[in-house]
Amino acid sequence: MSKSKSTRRDFLTKVxxxxxxxxxGGLVWSYLLQQxxxxxxxxxxxxxxxxxxxxxxxxxxCGQCVDACPYDTLHLAxxxxxxxIGTPYFTPRDVPxxxxxxxPCKVACPTGALEPELEDINDSRMGLAVIDVENCLSWQGLRxxxxxxxxxxxxxxxxxxxxxxxxxxxxxxxxxxxxxHCTGCGICEKACPTxxxxxxxxxxxxxxxxxxxxxxxxxTIETPITQEFKSKAKTKEHSTTKRGLDYLNEGEx
Length: 253
Fold this sequence. Notes:
disordered C terminus
């Protein structure tokens, strides 16, 4: 075999190997992108994170927000974490966001992936706490309410309501989450005493619906009619309060 033919064969072999490697790399990269797309809805981002599509475009995976967090809440996703590799996230059950007033993670972000306009940490929406009523101690009739007591926005993000019990005249005190105030910090999830947290922070898109702009909730609109209705309701409430009711025994005082 001549030297020229050997050289040509080696060249073609290397070209073939390069093409195979490129194809394999493309398949691996495509798989990673698909995995990231599926994982994105489950990622809990730092406070002030912009919409997920914009976040993935702006985040350069530098880790400065992670370094700035004083509680080691944030981590950069690694391969196998089921979250886009290199992006910051946190797991509330391990370490929640402790709501730093100066929002150091946002300040450290160099690209605007964490909203620069966010000034009040209470306005952040990292996720939404959702209660598993089948495993929540309070919803089973036991006195717990730890999530309510630990919530940084007590009586705003989480309130406690009195529900009558069927087997007795004593009431249950059950926690309710209000999405209008819940920041998704996860302190409630961390504090939950059940073996597996009965309250968990997840992406709101996984649980929240949308009524639709074509529905009109008339009672929420300020008109002379609704004002008159509210006035009558307040008068009736005042009358009931004045007379007094024994809630537990379902009778008048």
